[in-house]
Design goal:
Elements lengths: L2 H50 L1 H7 L8 E7 L6 H9 L6 E8 L5 H9 L1 E4 L13 E7 L6 E6 L4 H11 L4 E4 L5 E2 L3 H5 L1 H5 L4 E10 L4 E3 L2 E4 L6 H23 L11 E4 H7 L9 H15 L5 E12 L5 H21 L10 H16 L1 H17 L5 H30 L5 H34 L15 E2 L3
Parallel strand pairs: 1-2, 1-6, 2-5, 8-12, 9-13
Antiparallel strand pairs: 3-4, 4-5, 6-11, 7-12, 8-11, 9-10
Length: 482
Amino acid sequence: MSWDGFVDGLREVVVWLMHVTSLPILVYFALINLSYLALIVLAFVDFRAQHRRREAVVETFGGALTPGVSLVVPAYNEEAVIVTAVQALLSLRYPRHEVVVVDDGSTDATFARLQAAFDLVPIPREIPQDVPTRARVIDVHLPRDGRTRLVVVRKENSGRSEAINVGVNAATEPLVTMVDADSILEPDALLRVTQPFSDDPNRMVAAGGAIRPVNGSRVVSGRIVKVQMPTSWLARVQVVEYLRAFLLGRTGWARIGALILISGAFGIFRRDVIVEVGGLDPESIGEDFELVLRIHRKLRDEGRDYRVAFVPEPVLWTEVPSTVSVLRSQRRRWHRGLWETLWAYRGMLLRPRYGRVGFVALPYFWIFELFAPVLELFGIIIVPLALALHVVNLPYAILFLVLAYGLAVLVTLSAMAAEEWAFHRHERWRDLGLTLLASVLENLGFRQLTVWWRLEGWWASLRRKKQVWGVMTRTGFDEDPQ
């Protein structure tokens, strides 16, 4: 076949594809961005309501009736940060909380650092098996003075999910939150995130808080003292992502009673509910997503009246990937976890028993989260190809770019405006300018890379390839010695 014949044949295929898919793809991109705008509007309404009572929460909440909280800290080879992290958690502004550190078979000096810093001594305490676990608990330690509410449990290595389950078994308070050792909670975070449990103690079963990248911010003794944008553009774009999806998106879903994802990095649950559903699934890649869906399914199946909330103001600061390889591994794992969890709970889809979760949230996640990279990759390939073959005109291509990327920038700007109005975390106009620029640059390479990485994760799952978690190479917090 001659080159001209090949080009003519390719043109016919592209013409047919454009005829069949052009309108659905344009509608799809319009709907996904408009849905984000709708969630942001809902979040803005929620922000206004919380803004009015923000100071009242901290000043009036925290009395004798405040529910106690156990902070479960899974730790594996965290010798560099573990002591500072535990000290910061113990000093949180809260009337009754304990810190349960579960050393998941660390091979470094994680336990030795804790032992030296808190004068730990072994005690003959039996950890119950309220949540079934497979790994053997080695021993339990408490501070010698008996006043510091710290429990350190050492166990054989079996992964983060099992470490959290052991921590839930060791917890003695009615509420449990999971916090990674390399993350930072704001001093009033527990006061704010537990407020829904005080307002509605009978129905509230779980709540989530906001996750923000700590890269570039100044940290002193485990506390954020100055919020700043990261120095690398890779991390800056992730700030934009977290703002749009983790903060505004989840606030909107909670507003309509259809929140199905609480980040495992900062979620708070009733301990009895976690025990009822059997704890985190050690075999699940998306263990946080899977846990919340399992709670929804069980409580809906039993016809119980319950609530799952999201509180946008309390923030857990965490370091986001600063290299492309680590970011790729993270996004592949996230999308694989999304697919495997959605597939495992496909029986909830469009079932009246599951209400808005089954009729709104799950269809949205299937269509606009799971299948998004497939359709976006198709658009990335077909539109430039159609332009090159003179199948479409320039106005159509511009319309596609506006719907696919222009609206995405508008969504991000709306999210940034809502967050800044409500919480005003950034002190410098320069940081807001960098956020604006990052929202534009996100669409020039970064977004296309994440499309491919997510498809890699999905493909690996379909091939039943073993998931390798990899190592999150961290650069550390910007600690100020002064």
